[in-house]
Task: structure prediction
Amino acid sequence: MQDADNGQQVGFTNVFVFYASSGIKDDGYTRQYDMTAGTGLYLHGGAWERINWTKEDATGPFVITNEAGETLVVSQGKSFIAIWGGYYGQSLSLTAADGSAQTLPDKPALLESGIPDDAAAAAEAEYKAAQEATNAQAELARAQAELPDAQTALEEAQAALDADPENQDLITARDNAQANVDALTAILAAAVVIVKLIGAAYKIPLSNILGSAGQTYFDTAYQIYNFLLTFSTAGLPLAISRMTSQAHAKGLENEKRRIFSTAIWLFFGLGLVCSVLMFFRADALARFLNNSLAATAVQALAPAVFCVCLLACMRGYTQGQGNMTPTAVSQVLEALLKLGIGLPLAWYVLHIGKTAELSAAGAIVGVTAGTAVSMLFLCAYLVTHRNRKESLDVPSSSGQIIKQILLIGVPITLSNSAMSIINIIDTKIVMGRLQNGLGLSETAAAVLNGQYRIAMNMPNMVASFVYPVTMSLIPFAAAALARKDHAEADRIISSAFRLIAILALPAGVGLSVLSTPIERLMLPMQPEDALAAGPHLQILGIALIFICLMILTNAILQTYGKEKLPIFTVIAGGVVKVVMNYILVGNPDISIHGAPISTLCCYLTICGLNLFFVWKYSPEKPRYTQLFGKPIVASAVMGAAAWAVCGLVARVLSGHSAYGANALATFCGILAGVVVYGVLVITLRILQAEDVKALPKGEKIAKLLRLK
Result:
């Protein structure tokens, strides 16, 4: 801390620490203090003494006395005053020059009107978690918005340097551009994980509340919702953000306003059409998916399409101006309301004896409420922060803006719609074959399908935490290719493959060998569904490996400029999934067990094709056997160890509480797997220093693991 007058380090002759009773206001986290009287400390000249202080009113002076009640004599010079309320988990200590601890006055008492410290601690923790999520989402949104421009700047800087390789100014510009890309990439890797935690906190308790049938109704509504949402918003917000960013950089205020006014009406129309379709044709949509009981859930989710369309437009507009905070706050609001309204409402509906389809609708009300509140927040923000800057630029016509939005957004929409369409067709076929092929009732089919969907939640959730680590390396490969440094690009891509192998292989094998114990651990309220979902997860655990590989190879192909290939490979995998589901699920001997098999074959097909195309178009051909050989061996040994330890502990604890014994056995199995795998990774030298140095804190990780 520096003195503003002279720039010197601040020094104080006198230091006062006023003890003040404190408590928590009604908001649950803001601290309040009683500033009428208290005890305290006076430190000066290398000594200290106890004091008492009073203050008659807010504008009155402090009256300070020594322990004897006499007016305190203060040394001449600068003074510093600190207020200490004895907040929970905090302590105050004072050490003499000889190291001895001093006996200080008692901690200030809690205000009678205050919330108890344990409750305050819980409120504070919740507040901090929400704040961290907000900050993470803000950083993520900023990085996502800035990364394409940063990569373009890097490519331009490298191109200029290639033309004049000895120019030191160009070298510096290239290095600065590279540093910017590196920083944004690190933010993406770290923030994605934090943001994904919000989703994870929702899925597991939701499955416990809804059960298998309710999960089917919920997923059916969500698949319709995702398709309509992908169709209406997938690429368009990015187009708005990009166009707004360009206008903002040039100072074209009228152009910015015209882009937003045109886009908001475009999204208003798209959202309204999709919401009306979803609400009034809910029965027809649900019947199309052979799941008529999901109609109520579909209707409950219909308003969210309209809200999200407007949200997407407003978020694209604010992000395009480099303002990420509104997006971050709105997304956290949406997630918290989904948790805070959806889960309790789903539980309450079941608690009062209503059906599973109504409980699923209750859970979805939370989603709708979250999107509505987020939309209202952004509306209020834009109204109160209206762009009033004067400008002389002549904006483009609305027709020109719509044309530009569609030119940028439609190709992205088409590429993102493929999997949504496949999932809808897949659900229709699975539910149809269970009913028409096996003669099951709709409710019985919903139970079986829900058990499969519950099992699918786990690989999807794990994949969302695994792939950001490897995806953080892809921009570095893109930058190397821009510099025409093929050897460096190959090294980075090889590192990404190794990291996927090191992370995804043990995760997939672990889920597979501990499938039923994990499901029993995660679904204490639905033990029958947990047992039924276990065999599905055994297969889907292996599918997790190929899900992570698919995401990575899609990104690599896009880096190579082969953006269309992932669309075709996803369609090919989808066709395999649909055909196999029709054959297998309709077989009485296989039934719903055909669904996870089809899913595995789907992602296996996509990965096989993607790996071939990556090999074909890579300047330096990747050596797959070297990249995956050792991790496969290590994961197999890890899986055997985890399975053996879990089974042994479960047998030893067989006479105790079923859930408790399973939980302990599962944790022991996981711990054994982690230890064995960690030892094998180090002893077999699977992980290299270059694989982690590009990650956030990579240098420290490499040193900690003593990687070379």
